[in-house]
Amino acid sequence: MSGTARHIISRLRSLGSPDNLSGMARYGISTERAFGVKMGDVQALARQHRGDHNLAKELWESGYREARLLAANIADLRQVTPELMDAWVAEFDSWDVCDTTCGKLFKKTPFAYDKARQWAPSERELTRRAGFALMAYLALKSSKLSDSEYEPFLELIATTATDGRNLVKKAVNWALRQIGKRNLALNRRAIAVAEGLATGDQTARWIAKDALRELGSAQVQERLRRWHEDNMTTDQKIARCWGDGDPLMEAYHDSEWGRPVHDDQILFEFLLLDNFQAGLSWRTILHKRENFRAAFAGFDPVKVAAFTDSDQQRLMADAGIIRNRAKVNCALTNARAYLRIQQEFGSFDTYIWRFTNGQVIRHSGMDTWEQVPVSTPESDALSADLRSRGFKFVGPTICYAYMQSIGMVYDHLTGCFLYHI
Length: 421
Fold this sequence. Notes:
Shape: elongated
CATH architecture of the largest domain: Alpha Horseshoe
């Protein structure tokens, strides 16, 4: 080892502290060969030795955590080879070294894309994490990859989402979320992958729930929509089958309508809102949606089922919602019936998706709204069954609208930008 390398390791040792080591341990960082140096101090040293590739290799070979973090920051990108990447990834022993090396060095190489695909199937935990960490870094806006080049990543995410090891499942989730935040088209694809995972095992469901919460959020959808429209030519502007001109309607059309829902609380939300829509426009309901959320306990069916006469009086006095006594009474009645179904089937999701055998019904080739049915045999069967269980305001037409809302039916018209999703 050169004198420079020995001096730097000595310097790193002097900068460490027991308190920092304790903090690292709390975050699951290996402290076996660590000094407890703050990342800011490592980066300060890196500025003095940037591009010294031989020094980077010496520091890596020392095996010390902070020396390896420093190596990742100073290595000469031009001298990084696929062989070096494989050798270093095989020695990852802590998630922070893995993520820093991938983010500071490996992602910038021309080999990053292939290495992500090579490492993700590995059975070694930190090698697999490195593969998905690279996918996440390669999904940043600065990346020049085309949308189609992310398809192999999404396939690997779908096939690896059952790996319950903590460092892996968090990296898989990270990669899925980053890809889904890249643009609107990839957001749709990532959401579709997450929706598929939502019916998997416990690990897959955790990945799906966390990803869907972020990727479907109003904040992410609005940012992606603005970026999309700002970067399109006049001829490429979004063509919607409905909702244009109203930001709330546009957002709902783009990110919710026709998207499969498997979360029981969201299923209850749409059931309640569709009940109140009867005889009214969806625009009216959508603009009161947050008022309904506040009035009906965040759409928690357990809480709504427990509403009392005083709650009914409160709702009837609430100008922010639809003050229709029959519909207010219906909401409470349906909440109680909803809980009975949950108790019988384990979840409302399990119950309702039986009516389409767990599949999304796509009515293809419809050019106009006159071609869209107002009810189908499936909505007729759902309506009859819900009525037999004590539900109100659940006629076949309302049930069909509900099935559209929760993605059991996909009815975007041929001219809509979402038709081929």
